[in-house]
Amino acid sequence: MAAPKDGLEAVEAEGSAGLRGTSGIELVLPSGPAVPAPLCPHGPTLLFVKVTQGKEEARRFYACSACRDRKDCNFFQWEDEKLSGARLAAREAHNRRCQPPLSRRQCVERYLKFIELPLTQRKFCQRCQQLLLPDDWGQHSEHQVLGDVSITQLRKPSQLLYPLENKKTYAQYLFADRSCQFLVDLLSTLGFRRVLCVGTPRYSQFYMEDSFCHYNMFNHHFFDGKTALEVCRAFLQEDKGKGVIMVTDPPFGGLVEPLAVTFKKLIAMWKEGQSQDDSDKELPIFWIFPYFFESRICQFFPSFRMLDYQVDYDNHALYKHGKTGRKQSPVRIFTNIPLNKIILPTEEGYRFCSLCQRYVSLENQHCEHCNSCPSKDGRKWNHCFLCKKCVKPSWIHCSICNHCAVPDHSCQGPKDGCFICGELDHKRSACPNIATSKRANKAVRKQKQRKSNKMKMETTKGQSMNHTSATRRKKRRERAHQYLCS
Ligand code: ZN
Ligand code: ZN
Ligand code: ZN
Ligand code: ZN
User: What is the pTM of this model?
Assistant: First the structure.
């Protein structure tokens, strides 16, 4: 049995797929009572259908929700396929084998022991990316081990986990310091005290039960069941849901639809904790994603707007060198927070447009015809009077196609438009954005896959995040909590 020839690869390549009338793989969103989907190591799989020239194939299939690459998860099953008992048992065994070596409970227990050790005995194995207890030392004696791990270091796991990943040629995927600082400052300026981070890498060993869940953001699956879901619910609904924001930076190769479905479930969870008169309020969200997904994201979340702010990653494959030599990142923040409340740093090249009432890139000039600052990529765009909109500086108006396009396009181009950016003048395979997005996918796939499976509740400015449950904790645990959050 094999997946359709270009099946899963197409899912990966298409990223934002799903424009009607095009070809590719589309997610089948459940309508009516859902039949439970078969499980892969990443939780319930999703139902897909292959679409050719706008027509759906009759036979639909299940594939992994999180992995777009069969190398990462090769689950495949036709919707109508019946599996033998032996096959099902083998699959179950495989799913079990793929779970993390340590359970959440084991992680927490190890963590509690770890922080009670004197500083000189607190060691972290850089090869295995693991906090070590004295019993483990022997096994790691040949490995590079970091000693004297401080509580401050424990509170910044990304910096502990960083060195190993740095060794791989392409593996850096962390926000650059200035983007990190910008985000942290912004969250605190906006008055947020609690942050639900969806997509945090391998943090399980650093956080207590009330601040971390092993979670798959593509199918809203909590690996530790109802208890974990309740932790998330309590976090979102604490203080009647005030002061909380969700921040997420999903892998760029991921499909927008399942993410949107998931985020709507988290929004609904938050909303349950709201009183009736607040029913029109929305859970504040920062969704960090490339700008060419704007139309897809806004289709699912009409209240979302895109910030001009370019989220930088350290040495990321996403980077292109701009004319000024400054690296241009295609990654933006989508949010439902009113844009006039968000100040972008002028020292990084942003200015306030009083007409648009928002901060924009320096070169993003206000167009009086469009009545907006239209640039998406940070460069100056030009107004085309025939198209009645601003277009990228490299484009020219084509009288055959009757719209603006890159100069060397083929005029018999597809009318369906591009799966990636929605432009009409090229197909996905020729999308000027796909090179970026494909490179980015490759570069971040490995980390992001791990990353996509985690969720972390974090407090800003060191505020304790869960006062009510803290009182119920054993003394030892309270101390741990204090270490983390005070
Ligand atoms: Zn899978
Ligand atoms: Zn214009
Ligand atoms: Zn034009
Ligand atoms: Zn043309």
Answer: 0.78
